[in-house]
UniProtKB/TrEMBL annotation:
<dbReference type="Pfam" id="PF06763">
    <property type="entry name" value="Minor_tail_Z"/>
</dbReference>
<dbReference type="InterPro" id="IPR038512">
    <property type="entry name" value="GpU-like_sf"/>
</dbReference>
<protein>
    <submittedName>
        <fullName>Phage minor tail protein</fullName>
    </submittedName>
</protein>
<dbReference type="InterPro" id="IPR009312">
    <property type="entry name" value="Phage_lambda_GpU-like"/>
</dbReference>
<dbReference type="Pfam" id="PF06141">
    <property type="entry name" value="Phage_tail_U"/>
</dbReference>
<dbReference type="InterPro" id="IPR035934">
    <property type="entry name" value="Phage_tail_protein-like_sf"/>
</dbReference>
<dbReference type="InterPro" id="IPR010633">
    <property type="entry name" value="Phage_lambda_GpZ"/>
</dbReference>
Length: 212
């Protein structure tokens, strides 16, 4: 039961959405929906402002049991999303400053229209957005740096790209070092476009740990 002024809303809860704002939600027929009477108030802006101003206090204090676990989880998820944005930005900024001779994409080109492959080569830095909670403060995620070249190039050319244009950048990113506790290379895989024969790629993977 959520009480807002003189309104009582059964089954309502507070949730942070992808836009970063906190909203009052109500589960209707198994789905999360905005309660109409709450939206009319409205509450998204004051809720979001309140959480931003009091987030550290909320973490420290013991929350009411019926709200505490769900709210703490939402706070962690929101903080993780912000952290991942900072991590991706640090890698992207470092690659942009280095003359790699490739177009940088935050989305792998195989998810885009095929005509975009005329612009090869690509470099796609991506971070596993799920992440893994090692303990209450330490998280782990996978960082992928994938190079896309035309389909006909041999694996040796992909290796050359990685060795000459990617490794030098990834070995020295001060802005990233400030955000993480460790980064260890964990994999290196080749992929090819078997359907249309448009691209080949090398995917360099790091496991990173960071504090929340």
């Amino acid at each position: 039961m959520l009480v807002v002024g003189n309104r009582r809303i059964p089954g309502a809860f507070i949730q942070q959405l992808k836009n970063g704002r906190w909203h009052v939600m109500q589960r209707v027929a198994g789905k999360n929906r905005y309660p109409i009477d709450v939206v009319k108030i409205p509450m998204a802006v004051p809720l979001t402002t309140a959480f931003k101003q009091n987030i550290e206090r909320i973490r420290r204090e013991r929350l009411p049991k019926e709200l505490g676990y769900a709210l703490q989880h939402q706070l962690r998820m929101g903080n993780k999303a912000m952290k991942h944005t900072e991590l991706r930005a640090a890698v992207l900024d470092a690659l942009e400053k280095h003359d790699t001779g490739a177009t940088l994409l935050m989305v792998a080109p195989l998810f885009l229209m095929r005509r975009i492959f005329r612009q090869l080569p690509f470099i796609s830095p991506a971070l596993n957005t799920r992440g893994e909670e090692l303990d209450s403060d330490t998280w782990q995620a996978e960082l992928h740096i994938e190079v896309f070249l035309p389909a006909q190039v041999p694996d040796s050319e992909l290796d050359s790209w990685m060795e000459s244009r990617i490794y030098p950048v990834m070995s020295d990113i001060p802005a990233l070092s400030d955000l993480i506790t460790s980064m260890v290379a964990s994999g290196y895989d080749y992929r090819r476009d078997d359907d249309a024969g448009l691209w080949s790629s090398a995917d360099l993977t790091y496991v990173i740990t960071y504090e929340m």
